[in-house]
Amino acid sequence: MNTNQPKKKNGYIPHKAAAEFKPTHDWSKEEAEEMFLERQYSFDVDQVIFGDCIQELRKLPPESVDIVVADPPFGLNFGEMEILYNRNSDLVAKGYQDVEIKDYSSFCKSWIKEIPRVLKEDAGVWIFSGWTNLVDILNALKESNLKLINDIIWKYQFGVFTQRKFVTSHYHILFAVKDEKKYFFNKVEHYPLDVWEINRGYDRGKKKNATKLPLQVVQRCIDFGSEPGDLILDPFMGNGTTATAALSSYRHFLGFEINQTLNEIIAKNILDITLGQDYVPYRKRPDELVKRARQKFKK
Ligand SMILES: C[S@@+](CC[C@H](N)C(=O)[O-])C[C@H]1O[C@@H](n2cnc3c(N)ncnc32)[C@H](O)[C@@H]1O
């Protein structure tokens, strides 16, 4: 008799569900590549348009986008602050466009109002926000009739040193949808928590705007919120992280960015990526719980 086998308690076998976990949707690398290559759009995709996202959003056809990943300016006067955070100011891209705090609430309402029209029925939006202006994003989502599904805490490894308060080391990622009954969610992990611990990169010696997100955090939004071939829209493209996350996962992208000086940085970041380079079928990237359960059941 195998004594390692977990015992059955009132019909419940601990860890069995984890051992048997299968993602809701999954594709081999070949299938994912084919889905990417076959998908057609009636407008140009896989490009960054330099302009104001509110104007550009208005030009998109209705129901044309599968998922929005948005990392808007936080209204923290970051353009000046990022020079303080970076020892070498030559490596900070110029022209970061922030929004004054007094205008932040109306700014959030103006761009979020444009989102529902361009979303497909089953689409979702993932919005990054610090805690200080979170209320403005929440109010704008409500006003635009987008339904909040999760408030994910992204915990990173360092924040700005403080004397008389705690060091902020998290952002919020608000996951909201157009239709609570129809939205796409690929459960790619057995037990996906709403706290994500992902370190920020240092990118030593590389020119960028200092708000660059880690590729991994954007890939995670894409993994749960879309399928290969889908169109990811990023209204605030910054350094092009969403573009690289999309292409590396066999998704298409469309980005808007008001700061033309980022053109070269975005182009270089995209060129550094090979199509589908990070795509691994979800069944082959089990989370810790699933790994441990599979060992127990020798699966
Ligand atoms: C927080 S950063 C995005 C960083 C990006 N997620 C990355 O990983 O590199 C916000 C970006 O939005 C841009 N921006 C600000 N207002 C804009 C607007 N109205 N339309 C388009 N882009 C805008 C800023 O220039 C900045 O590059």
Topology, element by element:
Blueprint: H1 16-19, H2 29-38, E1 47-50, H3 53-59, E2 65-70, H4 78-85, H5 104-113, H6 115-118, E3 119-129, H7 134-143, E4 147-155, E5 170-177, E6 195-197, H8 215-225, E7 231-234, H9 241-248, E8 252-257, H10 263-271, H11 288-296
Helix pairs in contact: 5-7, 8-9
Bound molecules: S-adenosylmethionine (SAM).
Structural description of this entry:
By secondary structure, this protein is of the alpha/beta class. It has a single domain, classed as Vaccinia Virus protein VP39 (Rossmann fold). It is 30% helix and 17% strand. Strands 1-8-7-2-3-5-4-6 form an eight-stranded mixed sheet, sandwiched between helices. Strand 7 (231-234), helix 9 (241-248) and strand 8 (252-257) form a beta-alpha-beta unit. It is globular and about 60 Å long. It starts with 15 loop residues before the first helix and ends with a helix. Bound molecules: S-adenosylmethionine (SAM).
Can you tag this structure with a few keywords?
globular, 11 helices, eight-stranded mixed β-sheet, 8 strands, binds S-adenosylmethionine, about 15% strand, about 300 residues, Rossmann fold, alpha/beta, about 30% helix
Main pleated-sheet profile: 8 strands, mixed
Overall helicity: 25-40%
User: In the CATH hierarchy, what is the superfamily?
Assistant: Vaccinia Virus protein VP39
Can you tell me the number of structural domains? 1
CATH architecture assignment: 3-Layer(aba) Sandwich
**What does the oligomeric state look like here?**
single chain
Distance between the termini: 17 Å
Shape type: globular
Beta-strand residue percentage: 15-25%
Helix tally? 11
Strands of the widest sheet, in order across it, are 1-8-7-2-3-5-4-6
Q: Report the structural category.
A: alpha/beta
What is the number of beta strands? Answer: 8
